[in-house]
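Task 17 of the worksheet. Students: predict the tertiary structure of the chain below and write it out as structure tokens. Keep your answer in the requested format; marks are given for formatting as well as content.
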Amino acid sequence: MKNKVRHVLGISGGKDSAALAIYLRDKYPTLDIEYYTCDTGKELDETYELIDKLEDYLGKKITKLKGSNSNKDPFDHFFNIYGGYLPSSSSRWCTKKLKLDPFEDFVGNDPVISYVGIRGDEDREGYISRKSNIQSIFPFRKNIWSEDVIGKVLRNENIPALIEIYSFQNEKNIDSRTIQILEQSISPKNPIHQKLSLILDRGIKQFNAAVFEFLKTTSYPLSTESEFPLIENEDILIREDIFNILRTSGVGIPAYYNKIDFEIDGKKGAYARSRSGCYFCFFQQKIEWVWLMEQHPELFNKAMEYENAKEGFTWTQHESLEEMSRPERVQAIKEEYLKRNNSKSKSAFLLDVLDDSESEGCASCFI
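Model answer:
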């Protein structure tokens, strides 16, 4: 007898995963979701505060996963094992050891649906596990399915099967335009994302129902489920929706997103942190490093200690934190930040928080 399908949601400490937990709890209360977070030991206090508030709202414990059972915090444990070798954008052992491995140990070989908080206004894919027992779902997007599922469903040789599913589900009253789109083969002139967009425009619920039926012919975790409530989901949530969910729920926006005013030569600006994750994340913008130095000087100094422990290593390209912390350099970084923001559109979307490419730290690699 196969194991029961587990539903899991990873809390990164960022706004999107927190809002997704609230959204699913409120809209799909029948889903028995397990919540977890991967604790690196190097998170900001604001991250732990958010997790505590979410636990109260969800009425469930958020399981804290750690990459080691050492008395040291997980990051320092592996930092010592690797002989003082620090992670970087080209060698991200922190992602594997502190995020991916604990997550995959947590789910084991059970069939798992993993809910991912990528928004409808983002153009990126989330982590797709190499383990066949883990299937990702993206409730905030127009397309809730992962690209590997879409690749199978829209494969040219499956066109007849997909049309048959559509015809059966619509009692053979499928319109001619939908059939025409389904019949189109994937090719360089008709790439898969273009075909997918056209199909979704004809009806999101219909496509979701067809994919769910198709999955019964596969080994994906959802293949064994008799129903799945998100088939009916047509919501497309963007950045402002996320903030609204956090505000109206009472959980609130993670404190590090709160903009703090600064002034340089009479020019006023505001900065904040744009991501969750380790305080020394190497994906931070330089203005975020300045934010850390000025708002959490003790953590900036710790990050500098790590950097100084490895000769030639810098968290950011071509510049050490010691160099970055010099008054004249801090002023230059702030001036460049103000200049960059002023050159953008003055819309609230662009100026609300830094440059919202939304990676939510290394957590975005898999949850």
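Marker's comment: Strands lie at 6-10, 33-38, 62-65, 112-115, 134-137, 260-264, 267-271. The chain has a mean pLDDT of 90.
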